[in-house]
């Protein structure tokens, strides 16, 4: 009976008789179709050129491994995962496949260069792994049991360090959703299933090269970290940017719309350069920006594909605004809805405001819309990208706000200063652009209509208080939501000194 416990090693069970079972722990690297494949002891004996390893005893090794695990548990980043792996494999898997193929040295070389990412190399147990590997290589045991603690420690710390490194590079060292209530970019994190898959298929060199962040700004900030002669404050800001770009995981496309909330501007980016620039108004906030209770209006961090716009839009007023603001205005002024070109609906039917008891609790179930017009809060056009949070870009009748230094004044959506320019760019058709421009700038009330965009454009609502201009120089913006201190504190234990 043969049982494949992991692709990195095998327990080979040979039925010698009804009462005799011989168990061998064998690396997949050395597995062959021979009648008597080498035991794990044979593998070690050949690799270290020490005959004593032929006496390797799996049962005795597992007992030592458990002792080493108990001593190292507090130092592990993922102790529960390491325990599951060791229980299912009788002593881990990493060493069995990679001890003699140079992969452990490759792993260490990447760990030692982790400071290029602003993460201290000690976070990945680098020194302990290196010291243990050195001790194991120079060991000439008369009794194979002398090697058990070193093999166990090397496998345990090497696997834990590898999992932590892969997680850091692919997803960042902290989870932004635990820091901020309005961070809406989907996040993947390592889980045990992913760990098992990682170890099942790992080829160390290609893996480590593949997971290095490829974002063009990440590479530029790495260069600044290494060669920019930064002071402590600048260094801290660059380290925070690197972590945020690890959250993003991907490179920016050739063309995209970039709204950096602290800058309070929108940029249309083409091949790494700004082709159009305009002011925007972003969400206001009076409470800590990482709250999850919905008290704030800050513009969330999110991204999507801008694929449609509505000319002369209808504003479906969010329930949060209804409860916090609109109902109070209606109760104080029964003519408020009519004065603002708004209508109320109950169970899908429009209601006459004059017949409603606005002090009744049932009015909180009403739905409200603002019809197209010069006073519509969305102005004459809104730009949509699919999301579950009713966030979009739009025009506004309050043009004077674009002249202010602090433009964090909206309810969360992004008000754009030059809607005609943005619409013209998106439709990418001169005649259609002229038609839309006339509708947007017209004072007459027209019927609302949808425009599906042939040029679908990635849009990023981001939050960088430190960024690079088109010439690659560092620029800074005010931390209008107070995000940085929370992130800085979360990253301290990972940073290099």
UniProtKB/TrEMBL annotation:
Name of protein: Peptidoglycan-binding protein
Entry's transmembrane regions: 9-31
Stored Pfam families: Scaffold (PF20142), YkuD (PF03734)
Family according to the record: Belongs to the YkuD family.
Keyword tags: Cell shape, Cell wall biogenesis/degradation, Membrane, Peptidoglycan synthesis, Transferase, Transmembrane, Transmembrane helix
Keyword field contains Transferase: yes
Listed GO MF terms: carboxypeptidase activity; transferase activity
The protein's annotated pathway: Cell wall biogenesis; peptidoglycan biosynthesis
Protein transport found in the keyword field: no
Entry annotation: catalytic residues: 394, 413
GO BP: cell wall organization; peptidoglycan biosynthetic process; regulation of cell shape
The species this protein was found in: Sphingobacterium athyrii
InterPro entries xrefs: LD-transpeptidase_YkuD-like (IPR052905), LD_TPept_cat_dom (IPR005490), LD_TPept_scaffold_dom (IPR045380), Transpep_catalytic_dom (IPR038063)
Domain L,D-TPase catalytic: 255-439
């Amino acid at each position: 009976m043969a049982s494949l416990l992991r692709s990195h090693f095998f327990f080979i069970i040979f039925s010698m008789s009804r009462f005799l079972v011989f168990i061998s722990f064998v690396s997949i690297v050395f597995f062959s179709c021979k009648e008597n494949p080498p035991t794990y002891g044979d593998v070690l004996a050949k690799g270290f050129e020490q005959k004593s390893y032929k006496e390797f005893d799996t049962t005795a090794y597992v007992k030592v491994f458990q002792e080493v695990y108990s001593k190292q548990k507090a130092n592990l980043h993922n102790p529960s995962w390491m325990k599951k792996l060791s229980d299912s494999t009788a002593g881990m898997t990493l060493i069995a496949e990679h001890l003699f193929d140079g992969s452990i040295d490759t792993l260490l070389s990447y760990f030692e260069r982790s400071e290029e990412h602003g993460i201290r190399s000690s976070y990945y147990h680098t020194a302990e792994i290196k010291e243990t590997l050195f001790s194991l290589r120079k060991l000439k045991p008369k009794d194979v049991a002398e090697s058990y603690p070193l093999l166990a420690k090397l496998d345990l710390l090497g696997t834990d360090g590898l999992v932590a490194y892969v997680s850091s590079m692919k997803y960042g060292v902290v989870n932004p959703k635990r820091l901020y209530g309005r961070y809406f970019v989907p996040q993947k994190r390592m889980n045990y299933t992913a760990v098992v898959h990682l170890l099942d298929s790992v080829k160390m060199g290609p893996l480590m090269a593949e997971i290095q962040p490829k974002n063009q700004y990440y590479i530029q900030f790495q260069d600044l970290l290494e060669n920019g002669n930064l002071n402590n404050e600048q260094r801290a800001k660059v380290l925070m940017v690197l972590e945020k770009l690890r959250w993003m995981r991907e490179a920016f496309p050739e063309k995209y719309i970039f709204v950096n909330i602290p800058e309070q501007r929108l940029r249309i980016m083409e091949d790494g350069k700004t082709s159009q620039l305009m002011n925007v108004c972003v969400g206001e906030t009076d409470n800590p920006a990482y709250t999850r209770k919905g008290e704030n209006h800050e513009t969330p961090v999110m991204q999507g594909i801008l694929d449609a716009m509505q000319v002369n839009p209808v504003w479906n007023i969010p329930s949060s605004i209804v409860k916090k603001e609109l109902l109070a205005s209606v109760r104080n002024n029964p003519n408020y809805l009519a004065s603002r070109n708004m209508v109320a609906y109950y169970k899908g039917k429009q209601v006459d405001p004059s017949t409603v008891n606005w002090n009744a609790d049932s009015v909180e179930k009403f739905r409200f819309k603002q019809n197209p017009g010069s006073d519509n809060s969305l102005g004459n056009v809104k730009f949509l990208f699919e999301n579950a949070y009713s966030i979009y870009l739009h025009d506004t009748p309050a043009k004077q706000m674009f002249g202010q230094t602090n433009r964090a004044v909206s309810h969360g959506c992004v008000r754009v200063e030059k809607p005609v320019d943005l619409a013209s760019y998106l439709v990418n058709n001169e005649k259609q652009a002229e038609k839309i421009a006339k509708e947007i700038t017209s004072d007459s009330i027209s019927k609302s209509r949808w425009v599906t965009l042939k040029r679908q454009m990635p849009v990023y609502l981001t939050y960088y208080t430190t960024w690079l201009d088109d010439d690659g120089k560092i620029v800074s913006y005010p931390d209008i939501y107070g995000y940085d201190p929370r992130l800085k504190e979360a990253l301290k234990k990972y940073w290099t000194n």
